[in-house]
Amino acid sequence: MSRIRWFGALAVLAALATLALIGPPGGTRATAATGTSFDQITGSGATASTVTVSWQKGLLGTDNQPIAGANDIRANPGNNPLAFMYQDPDFQHLQVTVSQTQELAHQGITISWSGALPTQRAAGGANGPIGGNYLQVMECYGDSSSGPSPQDCEYGTQSQLGSENGPQSTDSRQGDLCEIDPATGQPFLPSTASPPSSQSGDSALWGCDSEEPVQGASAPDTDNADFPQEYAIPFVPADGCGTPPAAGCPAYGVTNTNAFFNQFNTNEVEGAITGSSGTGQLQFETLTGIEAPGLGCGLLDPSTGQPRNCWLVIVPRGTYEPNGFQISPNNTGVGQLLVSSPLSASNWAMRIQVHLGYAAVQGSCPIGTKETETVGTQLVARAMQSWQLALNQTANCHTIFGYSATTEAESTLQLDNPSASGVGLAFTTIPIGSEAARDDTPPPPNPLPPIVYAPVAVTAVGFGFNINDTNGLYTTPVNLSPELVAKALTQVYQSDIPDYFPNATSAVGIANPVNEFGPAWLQQNNLLNISDDEQFKRLNPDPNGGSENAIWNNATTAPLAPMLTEDHSAANQQIWKWIQGDPGASDWLNKGTKDVPNGDALAPDPDYEALQLGTAPAIDSFPRAYGACLNEGPDTPPTGAQTKDVSRCSLDLLPYVSNYDQAAGNILNGTDPVFTTWDSQATAPDGSSGWWVVAPPQPLGARWIWGISGTSDLAAFGLIDARLCNDPGTSCVGPSSASLTAAVDSAKPDSAGLLQVNPASPGVGGYPLTQVVYAAVPTTGQSASALTDYANLIAYAAGAGQAPGAASGNLPPGFLPLPSSLKSQAMAVVKQLQADAKGSSSPSPAGSGTSNTSGSGTGPGGGTGTNSLTPSGGGSLSSATPTAGPGITPPRAQLAAAKTERQPVGAVRWLLLAVVIAGAACAVSGMVLRSDGVARWLRSMRT
User: Fold this and answer.
1) Apex 327 CA angle, 321 and 328, nearest 5
2) What CA–CA distances, in Å, run from 748 to 313, 633, 861, 899?
3) Beta-bridge partners for 463
4) In the chain, what are the domain boundaries?
5) DSSP 8-state secondary structure symbol assigned to residue 125
6) Tell me: the pLDDT tens digits for 579-634?
7) 66 or 395, which is more confident
């Protein structure tokens, strides 16, 4: 009896301890990606494919291991004519780390380095042009075991280094040949004591290269047929030029290379700065064959069926030119800075090369393969791209999944009649159809079918920054308050107003330029841009310890407004709700109430003030409401062209970007598509002459750019996230595993059972802009095979697809792994869809959500949805409901604060509960059997 009692008691304790460890049913805690430094939400830190390489062993093969013998000269240059470069201290101790080298896509990778000499600047001090001791970085194609050729590299557009604008400069693919030694008939060798001059007669400071043209190089060689005293490195695309070569290929010079890349879409980095400590860091944009067809990275090689790979090439630049000339800040003109191309033979020999493995960006299935279509929010785009690759490979072309990012209204139209649209799954953060009343879009022509909702992703919206000043890349998270964001979104800074044109007299192509300073309200107290705002400076102290926050001072008159998308969405609305949750921001938006104490009393824009953006309900888009335009009068057209008025309105100055991916990519490469310069010879949208030209990418050392995007895109491109603060800055929360988890814990289900985070109250430590993404699937109007396919997709997405990682099929950075309760909901929907596919009439399981506009449905929170929903704020729907067709209304507010979300318990918990009950029975029975009364009764029974 004693053994029974003790066994029962121990079993109870063990089962209870296990239950406590895994948490109660419905718990929403999740564990993010593990690792020593990688952050699953921000994407920062080392990955499994991180490579660290020293310059002395910098020539790596396709396995990213040093090529045998190739690096020997770097340790022992002997009498090599370039010994002075091989022994340059800027190279000898240089060590570079690349954060990710496998399973790459269109994204950003972190390149950091140490052991270099601080960047040397030409005359002008800290703000002078970059002279020497910096890195030049480029992407090249190929899988050759020896590495890429200079002809394989995307490099050479317009200079961002402040070097000479002539044909021979660090941004070019060409340069000078060294003069010929009459005694040998060969170019003079380089010499630090007496550097040779150029064949063209240019002095030694032009850095001729005695190794050019490369002897025995495969065609096309590096001779410049038009200028025989110069060398030229062409660009040859990954698929070659054809036979005979296509016109303009090989591509010599900017005119021809523009067919493959230009200053707006290249990923070259012309001058990566090394700080005073000998270290530096940058985010490098990796391009696939979609963005850079000339490189072809990630496209399938027809001969192997495998993705094409590429190379990362880093050319360190010291203070020597290839001919031995050493630059000096004390020189005048070009002698202060390097001018030779990194692609010339001598500079190219100093390179570090790292092999980059790409994930496939295209399917290998034949045309006509059955495709199961999905649409929905762009927040899930990167996760779906990863899941697609894994599922499509596993299916072996039997079924492939497609995905297109669409607006919420378009998703509703697609699911309204899946048999006609061919789309039976939409990713969404809100009930399908509920957006119609919010943004006055027409409802679908028919009542929506019953829809189930399966949670598949937890992610967020954020603000991403790229600030790179004279000290290099700024890596500290930027702090933003509701009031600061409200000002940034409503054109209250001078540089965000189209008719603020203070430098008109210096503009080219305008007949009678007139300096303009915008409306009267702007000229009183309003500042040039957000970097001048005292509230911004107070929330973001100068990291260098300066009392004036010098890092933020940006004298440019170009806008520093965030890049925005034009769509209407619940994600946009959540940002406005966060702003409205701050009384000071709401009062300022509605009434122009003074800023927070010690802040700047900026006047609000009257055109935005009329919108009353501080009053609920929050809008779901980012309007360009300022109505006045710039009008400078006639331009000075080219000969034969018609004169036209120089005008500019808000959308010309501050155009929208297409999507989150474009926003994040532009932030990474410093391309802000603002129109600030008039060009009388540029082609206008209507085909006439005279138009505003897009500003070139901001150069490193003078880069200040930001925008709104999803955390998955911000993480993919390695941008610096913003932390969202209260106005005093005493409480700030950025996107992280902990903050997204806390926000999901605080979320409440809406009428269809979809969890919604209240941005004004996201829970302690919760990130206000957290989103839960659901896969919405109509259960009628679809074939059995379609329902089965969608069930398989959801099962993978909520199962194996939640494993964080960079490989195809993994959960990419920027997403929080689904909590167990949400996984259970998703799997319940999978069972429902499988049952429906078999013709089962089983009811919707707990944990799935159904919703339609006629009848009712049960959501995962136990709530019901009907066609008589009322707005969450109360009041009439008449203004939002069209007179024709069924009324699609927003979900009503659900009083669920005190309710526990109903969740499946799960087999493990049932088993543990059974152990507890059985153990308790053993313990109790043991005690009962040892009692005196039971003992006397048992003895009497034996008698």
Assistant:
1) 170
2) 50, 56, 8, 9
3) 708
4) 371-459+747-755+765-865, 478-721
5) G
6) 999 999 999 999 876 654 445 678 999 999 999 999 999 999 999 999 999 999 99
7) 66
Largest CA distance in the chain: 130
Task: Say what angle helices 583-591 and 570-580 make with each other, to 10 degrees.
Answer: 100
What is the dotted CATH code of the domain comprising 371-459+747-755+765-865?
3.40.190.10
Q: What are the residue ranges of helices labelled H in 546-630?
A: 570-580, 583-591, 606-609
Confidence of residue 10 (pLDDT cuts 50, 70, 90): low
Nearest to 381 by CA among 646, 667, 106, 111: 106
Q: Which of 472, 475, 380 is nearest to 734 (CA)?
A: 475
Percent residues over pLDDT 90 in the chain: 52
Secondary structure of 481-524 as H, E, C letters: CHHHHHHHCCCCCHHHCCCEECCHHHCCCECCCCCEECCHHHHH
What six digits make up the tokens of 843? Answer: 């009811």
Q: What is the pLDDT of residues 537-573, one digit of tens each?
A: 889 987 666 554 444 455 456 789 999 999 999 999 9
Q: How many residues does the chain have?
A: 943
Q: Which tens digits make up the pLDDT trace of 230-275? A: 888 889 999 998 888 888 888 887 778 888 887 778 888 888 889 8
Burial (0-12, 13-18, 19+ Cβ within 10 Å), 9 = middle
Average pLDDT estimate for 130-137: 91
Token pair belonging to 283: 């985010």
**Contact 513/505 with Cβ under 8 angstroms?**
yes
Task: Evaluate whether 386 touches 357 at the Cβ level (below 8 Å).
Answer: no
d(CA 427, CA 455): 9
